[in-house]
Fold this sequence. Notes:
GO biological process, one term: lipid storage
Domain ACB: 22-106
Radius of gyration: 14 Å
Keywords: Lipid-binding
Organism: Acromyrmex echinatior (Panamanian leafcutter ant)
Low-confidence stretches: 1-18
Structural class: mainly alpha
InterPro entries: Acyl-CoA-binding_prot_CS, Acyl-CoA-binding_protein, Acyl-CoA-binding_sf, FERM/acyl-CoA-bd_prot_sf
Amino acid sequence: MYICECKVANCASEVDKNSDIPVQQFEEAAEAVKALTKHPTDEELLELYSLFKQATVGDNNTSKPGMLDLKGKAKWEAWNKKKGTSQEVAKQAYINYANQLIEKYK
């Protein structure tokens, strides 16, 4: 078992490394977050972004944006902090975190 701990409380989840997180469940969570009527904070959006990128792409191997690209740099740094987290663990963490935001902002 692996444990993924997000920066936000109650987002920790245990995932069996041999399990397959249903792609449909992941995609439904991503769509539900897009449909929120209230806007999550920038910090919450960065956490979602970093989990989504880690889940779909894996480790961040891109060049760090320049210092004038503040938004790009923040996104890059958030994703880079997830380096080493498996895509399956990141998918489950994304689903859990998205569900928290859906409850909070519905």
